[in-house]
Amino acid sequence: MLWPKAVKDRMKTGGDLEIVQSYPYRSACPNAVWADLVKDATEDIFIGGYTGYFLWSNVPRFSDLLRRKTKAGCRVRFLVGDPEGEVTRQREVIEDTALSVSTRIRITLEHLGRLGPLEGLETRLSAPEDAVNHVSLSVFRFDDDALVTPHLARLVGHDSPLLHLRRRGEGGMFDRFAEHAEELWGRGVPV
Fold it and tell me: Could you say which of 40, 75, 90, 158 has the lowest number of CB atoms within 10 Å?
């Protein structure tokens, strides 16, 4: 009664409070958003994309930034698909692109390998039983912010939508996606 309908329609309430921004394509999310989220994270960075390779081209000096983050005590985790896995091979047939899924995963693993062993940096491959759940949903978490990409049928990640979420309390969308990512991480195979 206090607020006109026009104002109520524009205010966030309930479940959408955690949605900072939505993008029809992951590639529509500005590189500065990715870079700022990585730079601002102090405790935990979780890269849960099936390939994750694009971060080295989208975030300037990404490897150096990861080194600084781990040196400052930030936990950095990468969960990627198994480049030799059956789900990876199936996804390559579906996507039918020159830059194959297994190649994109190997690019990420190569970049991580070049970092050398870093205290606070961990890498795992999806467990075979979880790969189909991982390939269909990417979760990138930076402390209390997350970028989430539900992958659409035959599209590569950059053509799928993206949600920028910020944790506002317990049990919201942020927590639902974070719990999904932690479950996959828990069963992941160390690299």
Answer: 40
